[in-house]
Amino acid sequence: MAKMWAGRFKKDANAKLDSFNTSLPFDCRLYKQDIQGSLVHSKMLEKQGILSKKDVDLIQEGLHSILDQIESHEIEFTKAEDIHMFIEEKLTNEIGDAGKRLHTARSRNDQVALDIRLYVKEEIIEIQKFLFQILDSLCVAAKSHLKTYMPGYTHLQRAQPITFAHWCMAYANMFKRDIIRLQNTYSLMNECPLGCAALATTTYSIDREYTASRLDFLKPTDNSLDGVSDRDYCVELCSDLSLIMVHLSRMSEEIIQWCSLEFHFVELDDAFSTGSSIMPQKKNPDICELIRGKSGRAIGDLNTLLVMLKGLPLAYNKDMQEDKEAVFDCIDTVKECLDVFIPMFQTMKICKDNMMHACLHGFINATDLADYLTKKGLPFRDAYHIVGQIVGYGIENKKSLNELSLKEYKKFHASFEEDVYQYIDIETCVNNRKVYGGPSPESVSIQIQNVEDFIKQEACYESVSYT
Hints:
The protein is built from 20 helices and six strands.
């Protein structure tokens, strides 16, 4: 079949050009968006008196027929330069000359810009549904573990006592920000490029407000050059998704560590673990390891877009065909990871006793011991120095702070009294940290409520939309 653009050329395209140039193998997933845009575009052309009702009725019927055929797998995506030409060729074959009139007052440049925007808008909402699910799962876990004590770490060294609930809400706040970032991306891109045509709009009297409204955009894009060449939203989306993957990767890294016998803080359900081909005892956290690895793919997709765009002049350039595979891969990766991570987390067993045992070793209540002395009147730096000596003594004598006698404490300072043991008790250490944002049950309960209020404010995540 002759190319749609063949009029200018005297030779047929080389077979290698066809193979190299086509985007149909990957942009075929935009068929719904392409048909949706064409349905609205044709109705606008009829409304403006540019196409007859007879032609538009044929176009509408033909497009719906093609959609049905694609979704029932009656036709395959073959032998076309891209999804736009594929559908136009099919339409023309079905309805004749009316199909050739569909492309009046538009270009593939604004057509593809529209398709990818429609696709990204839909996928943002789908990804947010996953994020609301993980927020809900973290809140449920936190409510159950307000008094599940564990060490908090800095430099991967035991630092101060917290709770598993406090840890959960740290990640909840990360995923909450991810939702907000996706909302911002959605809001910034919620403008319709249809009508920009190739780059300079058209001489036809089209109604861009009509098409924008019918396609659920806030408004048309303000500048036609920008409308066809803007891919900021693709970069922003992949940036948002890369951060989601970074957050999942960090969480996965901790779970990987905690599954080891050296920690044994958690145990993954058998349904979300794998074994070894040679070592019968192994139970591996492969889901977490794969998520940690796949985070690099999302970051790579973001880098692909930035490098692709950085040197492009206005307006459309063929380089921009490379946006889709990066965007599609990034979206697919994040959705796949969230889909398996959420039930894995929900079924994960928390080993409370092991977490508490870790709290009792490593001197994680040393800061509280220093605070004890400061409340007796010592300057903090003096108290810090004294406690450092006590820790050194405890290490040398293989005793925790709770195991030292009052007589041993008084060797370091006379201010120590019997009440020191209650003050450095792990539960007391956590419960006394009632500062906003802290690990005490009261503080974490506020954090949980804040996240739950956020979920309610954004409406049920089953129907969330920001149109």
